[in-house]
C-alpha cells in the first residue's frame, strides 16, 4: 500500500480510534477498563493484566518511564482487542465490507439503519475496513454519561396522582401507548407504582443489555430479555420461595434508589404522568464496580440499539411510543451530526414516535456555597470569536490533583468553521509549549516527562458535518509494570487563527463520571472529570450532545417552588444555533418510586433526569389521544403551548427553552388539531 493510500484511509477514521489503534494490547487492555467502546475478547490476556483497582497495579516512578514510544501509525494488532464503532457507507451499498460481514461466533450482530452501521470489530481488521471503497467514514461510539440525581431526600410523603385532562386515555380499558425508558441501575418492576389492579406488573418487557439470565432479544444478540410473563411468574412465586420477585427474576443492575425506577415512575407509574401506558425498559450496561468492565461495551451504540428495540416493540404491539432517555453524551459537535444523533433522527421519521432526552446537569459555573464542588460538572464549554486584532485565544483546562491520580482519558474538542484555519499549542503544568500543530497535522501519543501522553489531531472537513475540529487528549501511562496518572494542574491551550474568514469557535470537554479505582501508591486512583477554569468557561451551550438531535425533545429542570430553572440545568443553544432545550418541566425535589427498597418506597430526587420523563409522560398522553402525530408536530405543540416563567415573554431562553410545559394545553391543542383534520373535506 502506498503512503498516499494510507493517508486517504486515515482521513476516514475518527482520531479517537486512531489513538487506540496506536496502543499495544497491554495498553488497550488497561484502557478498556474505563473506555466504553474498547473491550478485551481474550480470557488469557484478562488474567495476565491486573485491573487498575487491584493491588498489583502500582504507580511507576519517573525514571522507570521509557525514553520514547512508537507513535504516528497504526500498530500491528492481535484479535484480542475489539472496538465498538459506527461506520458510514456510501449510499446504495448493499453488501457489507468483509470485517462487518464475516463475524466470529459470540459477538453481537451488525445492526444497520439506512447507510449507517453499528458493529464491534477487532483492531486487527481496521486497515481492511478502511480500505473498502464503500466505507465513507468510521466514527467512535461515544461515552454515555449518567446524570446522577441531586439532593436525594427519603423523608417524603407518597406522591399524589397527577391531575389529568378528560382527553386523557387513562379511562380506557386497554393501553393506548407504550412508554419506553432507557436508563441505568435497574427496573424495580414490582414496586407498587408499577402494579395494576390485578396485581400484575405494568412492564411489558425489560431488555437487560448486561444480563445473562434469559435469551437475548431477537435481532440484537446480547443481553437478556425479561418478559411480562417472566416478571408475573416471579410475582406469583414470591410466597412459595420467600424471595422478592426481583430476586427470582434478577437484572444485572439492581441498585437501591435506582435511577431507572425513579424515572419510569415519573413518566408512567400509577402516580405518574401517564399511568395508562404499557412500560418497556432497556437497562444500559454500565457495569458495576465488581464486574470486569474490560469485557463489555457500554457506549452510545447501546442507546441506538435500545431505541430500535423499543420502537420495534411498538410496531409489534401496534402502539405509538414515547421514549425517555435520562442519559447523555458530551463529545462531538453538538449539532446533531454524530452518528448516534443521526441514527435516532432516522428512527423518528415515522409518525407515532417521540423521544425526550434530559438536557444534562452541567449548568453550574461557580460554587453556590463554601465547599460546593458542583461547578466541576458544569465547566465543560467555552467559545469565542477571533478577530484581525485578536487572532489568538488561550484556554485553561484543569486536571484535578490534591492526592488524586487521574487515570481517565481527558478529551477536549474544538470545533470551528471550514472557512478558517487554526493552529494549536499545548503547555503542560510543568513544561513548555508543545506545537504548533497546524491544520491537517497531528501529534499522536507523545510521552511527556510527567508520564502523560499527549495526542492532538487538527482535522479538516470532518465527514459527519464538513466542519473543522481539533481533538486534544491527555492520556495516562499504562503498562504491564504499572501506571501513571495524568499530570494534575492547569493545562494551557493556545489557539492561533492563521487564516480568518468566519472566526467563531466552540470547545467542549468530554466528560467521564467520577469513579474510584482504589489506592495507587500514596494517592487515590480515580477516573475524574477535567474542567475549564472560571475565566475560560462560557456559561451556555452545555446541553448534552445527545440532546441536540434534530427531532428529539430536550428538557430543562424547572424548580417549581422557586419558579426558576435549577442552577445545574444545562443550557443551549446548540453549536449551529438551534433552540435546545425546547421545554422546561418539574425536575426539582420530585417524589417518585425508590427502587429495590421496601422499607422506604419513595424518594425525592433533583435533576434534568427527573424533568425529562415528565415530558415523555405528557407526550405519551398526546399520542394516546392521536397516534398520527409526528415528532416534529409534537415539538411544535410543546412550543406553542409552553408558558413563560415569571414575567417573561414567549421568546426562547437558553436555560428554560420556550417555557414550562402545560400538559392540559398540549392535549387541548392535539384536540383542536384533530378537529381541524376531521373537518377537512
Structure report:
It contains 14 helices and 35 strands. The protein is α+β, with helices and mostly antiparallel strands and 681 residues long. A hairpin with a 4-residue loop joins strand 31 (553-559) and strand 32. Helix 9 packs parallel to helix 12 (608-625) and helix 13 packs across helix 14. Residues 1-5 and 163-172 have low confidence and may be disordered.
Quick tags:
681 residues; alpha+beta; 9-stranded mixed beta sheet; 6-stranded antiparallel beta sheet; 14 helices; 35 strands; 27% strand; globular
Note the topology.
Blueprint (H helix, E strand, L loop, with lengths): L2 H8 L4 H7 L3 H7 L6 E3 L2 H6 L32 E9 L8 H4 L9 E3 L2 E7 L3 H6 L3 E6 L4 E2 L3 E4 L24 E6 L19 E6 L15 E4 H14 L3 H4 L10 H10 L9 E6 L16 H18 L3 E5 L1 E2 L10 H9 L5 E6 L22 E5 L6 E8 L4 E3 L3 E7 L4 E7 L6 E4 L4 E6 L5 E7 L8 E8 L1 E3 L2 E3 L4 E11 L4 E7 L4 E6 L2 E5 L3 E2 L20 E7 L4 E2 L17 E4 L3 E4 L8 E5 L1 H18 L5 H11 L21 H17 L2
Helix pairs in contact: 9-12, 10-11, 12-14, 13-14
The fraction of residues assigned to DSSP E strands is 25-35%
What is the count of helical runs? 14
Q: Mean pLDDT score, rounded?
A: 87
Shape: globular
Q: Which regions are unreliable across 5 or more consecutive residues at pLDDT < 50?
A: 1-5, 163-172
Structural class label: alpha+beta
Helix content: 10-25%
Radius of gyration: 25 Å
Distance between the termini: 66 Å
Number of strands: 35
- Summarize the main sheet: 9 strands, mixed
